[in-house]
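Escalation from tier 1.

The customer reports that the assembly of two entities below gives different structure tokens on two consecutive runs. Tier 1 could not reproduce it. I'm attaching the input and our single run for tier 2 to review.
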Amino acid sequence: MFYREVGEFKTSYRSDQQTFPIALDRTGFLVTLAFAFVIIPLTMSEYWAQAVFLPFLIFGIAAIGLNILTGYCGQVSLGSGGFMAVGAYSCYKLMTGFPDMNIVVCILLSGGVTAFVGLLFGLPSLRIKGFYLAVATLAAQFFLVWMFNKVGWFYNYSASGQITAPEREIFGFIVTGAKAETLPVYYVCLVMLFSLAILARNLTRGAFGRKWMAIRDMDIAAEIIGVNPLMAKLTAFAVSSFYVGISGALLFALYLGAVEVGEAFSIQKSFLILFMIIIGGLGSIFGSLVGAAFMIGMPVLLKNLLVTNLGWPGDIAAHLEFMIVGLLIVVFLILEPHGLAMLWRIIKEKLRIWPFAH
Amino acid sequence: MSAEFFFGVEVFLNGLMAGVMYSLVALGFVLIFKASGIFNYAQGIMALFAAMTLVGFQEGQIPFAHLFNAMFGMEMHHFGWHMNAFFAIILALGVMVLFAILVEKLILKHLVNQEPIILFMATIGLAYFMEGFGDLMWGSNVKKLDVGIPQGGNFWIEENTAFLGGDAFYGFYLDTLDIYATVIATVLVVSLVLFSQYTKTGRALRAVADDHQAALSVGISLRAIWVIVWAIAGFVALVAGIMWGAKSGVQFSLSLIALKALPVLMLGGFTSIPGAIIGGLIIGVGEKMFEFLIGAPLLGGATENWFAYMVALVFLVFRPQGLFGEKIIERV
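Tier 1 run:
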């Protein structure tokens, strides 16, 4: 009753094939956009922007990227942290090597570099499957982090081994470096996330996405009906790494400013992104975003509740966070292996037929 | 022969010892994987948790003391007694058995017939839960574990091998603890093999590993077998935890050896106990030798972080089922 498609008649293929075929969804989407572009920037405080919104936008991109690989193409990867590091370091090299280049071009190019590296590490996926592959991607994680730590060229031989983002601006607003303002940074991340999410949505429902899903569901059967597994798997790896690389570049240049590779892009980050898509829902763009919001927001919420309100020590809150994350993952896998996105679909179905049972 | 050569031999021997440690962890993985098809990511955390529990019992720590202190403003930390290492091990083993029962009741029972990757992710969730739980229960500080195994370089070996390499060579340096670990690991493996070959329960375990449904139809209780397997894996985790804990202190990094055990498993094949041992030895020797010959002089060191994964990655491209794994047959 509240959510319905009754009375909507499609008269052209175009209207039938649009991203949100139901009017209510379109309105909801526009309202969300208005909220994200106007209301949140007007009302958010510095603390909320730094603690919740910026990490959410940046990790949302990474989650979409991993979801393309794991959720749509069925190749589990534990190397996202390493690929984020590739994005961050190539962004740094581009920024320092070509000082006149626009920062957005830098970020997009570092996504391209990451896509290439992802392609290389995706090659074994043609022979290795399932969690053998998951473990093989750990090679990417550990090798890349080690390389950025050891090879001086990547961090321009700086004494601390860290990389620090130089100052760059877009339309006169400083977005990187120490003097970066929060609002322009927020808008850059938001526009990035928005355009990449739209791109991902359209990729996954097009020919590419259908090939990926065929490979995910059963690769031998897909091969028999004419899907080229080489192309399908490698494109998934490349596209996914592109997203993850952009996320890494944004995390370094716009959010953290200075990065020590072993700390910022450790294996924990790989798991964090994996948890986002498990909790959000494998094979759903919307789910990636919900999962990212959940995994970013929950620790902040817990910390506020336990440390600020109840006055407990910070380490207990950290331990409880681990327990709650672990518990939630297990509970989700038992109750709803398809994550929050599936829950949302069930709610919509309930709303559609309410107050009747069928 | 030159001293250089004997240093190489020493590195090789130390690699073998390290490999035994990896094998110990990998063994726990193989046991669970064979019996239930679950790839148990939490094995490393189980080792950490077991070692923490052991230290906690020995030192007489009050569980959750830190939490209670924060909640009710109390000031407690220890019971004030020191327990004998033997009793503490028995009690820690009891805790691991209890853990096995709970895992079966609360998680595995509900996830029967799910895809392997879902089960794998569930064990990642379990690992996270255990990590927080262990820290909350016993505190997250680095603990010293001492169950009476001697430590430090073995002088007897050092003195009796010194004549081999001339003046620049002082004999092989081997840690006594590593030698103990090797002996204990050998005993453990032999007894596990005997257990699975010659006892009724062992036969039931192998039957379940072969075919769940066939095992059920001849009256083997799947759930009981799972509890037994997880309890045995808990026991192996306790042994691994004691060894690693005595070597480098009980701390979070101990759980990361689980990640090191993964390439070992991939080399040896997920379903083979000898595979786990040999894979562990190959990785242990391989990474020590690589670091000694190529890593430290040419690449700036710390290659041990990724060498094992790279070997496994390259190796799997040519032989996806591992050295001793069963051949993978796929049907549509």
